[in-house]
Design brief:
Strand content: 15-25%
Low-confidence stretches: 1-48, 50-59
Distance between the termini: 44 Å
Number of helices: 11
Mean pLDDT: 85
CATH superfamily of the largest domain: Lactate dehydrogenase/glycoside hydrolase, family 4, C-terminal
Strand order of the largest sheet: 3-2-1-4-5-6
Largest sheet: 6 strands, parallel
CATH class of the largest domain: Alpha Beta
Radius of gyration: 20 Å
Order of helices and strands: HEHEHHEEHEHEHEEEEEHHHEEEH
CATH architecture of the largest domain: Alpha-Beta Complex
Bound molecules: nicotinamide-adenine-dinucleotide
CATH topology of the largest domain: L-2-Hydroxyisocaproate Dehydrogenase, Chain A, domain 2
Number of domains: 3
Shape: globular
Amino acid sequence: MKKGSEGRENETKRARSKGQTVAKPSSDVQVDPVTIEAPCGQGGSGGYFKCGNSNGPRLWRNESMRRAKITVIGAGNVGATTAHWCAAAELGDIVLLDIPQAGDMPKGKALDLMQASPIFGFDAQITGTSDYADSANSDVVVITAGIPRKPGMSRDDLLATNAKIMGSVCEEVKKHSPDAVVIVVSNPLDAMVQRALQVTGFPPQRVLGQAGVLDTARYRTFLAMELGVSIEDISALLMGGHGDTMVPMPSCTTVGGIPVTQLIKPERLEEIVDRTRKGGAEIVGLLKTGSAYYAPAAASAQMVEAVVRDKKRLLPCAAYCDKEYGVGGYYVGVPVILGTGGVERIVEIDLTEKETAAFANSVEAVKELVASMAKLV
Ligand SMILES: NC(=O)c1ccc[n+]([C@@H]2O[C@H](COP(=O)([O-])OP(=O)(O)OC[C@H]3O[C@@H](n4cnc5c(N)ncnc54)[C@H](O)[C@@H]3O)[C@@H](O)[C@H]2O)c1
């Protein structure tokens, strides 16, 4: 057995000795769960990210053929739902981790999710824990730890609390999963992902944030509702920070190949863009307690899929831009190619004069946020 497999076996033994939820191979034959292949998109699980059957399992860092290991930190609404989408799409083995004060909650959610596996037909080892040792050598770490926005609270109000949480979480990630691709979800996103980069010291390509996939999904949803067409026919792009300064790109928004500007009048399009900007607050206002999680989690899982299946997806993500777009060393939402290495390329496109001004405004807001955070941590 190779070194990586031994490590995983020990983790499995450790988890079992602590009474944690660990999946068993479904057959009676003793099979090392590390070396079996995870089929892609079979049974009821194939449709989530349209993975089909062509992508198959991937070979991780020259170890034996094994499933990807995905750790989700923060087993609250976004974290647990991210685990749910990842499991249903059979993206890999999942560790759902929360603070010790959360008690057995992560174990309970992991066991509950495992019990959905016979129905959806996914094979995955799902472990609930508060011990970072169980997350060791993860390929992807999704960070959702923090407090969510409450009604009337801006994302920026979350800054001080979540920056401290992000710092402590990232120290552990650095220690236990030094080769992971880290996807930050906690808000205020653009500052939290910068903090994750500072604390992990990982290369910027392996630290990125989820915002643009969600914002674009909201925008596409509203456009489909407006036009009464399938969401499949709507392709769109939003750039800039995750917040009120996000930048819609009408020049990159099409409906079945037709520029959206030919189908929706400018004033109405502006209203839809405005609803998208306030999309998070709209959900907070409806839920009253907590913030959105189904779509944020689906967006996070789509990014996990791009990494573990090396899909080379072109997705809008919060990526570290230095010379790119002249940003000068901050995280901002831009189109990237996302694959095994994380952000494999930042795609630079020509912006119109209006888009350039809006993007610059958004970058300024991110810089201010990062400067405020620097005073707090
Ligand atoms: N980027 C986005 O698009 C987006 C969208 C929605 C929510 N969010 C953000 O995601 C975060 C989580 O939202 P939620 O609705 O899941 O909140 P939640 O309260 O349901 O879950 C947060 C979890 O984090 C845990 N936690 C707190 N400190 C921790 C630590 N040090 N280590 C590990 N776990 C810790 C809590 O115990 C809790 O279970 C919030 O910051 C929210 O604003 C971001």
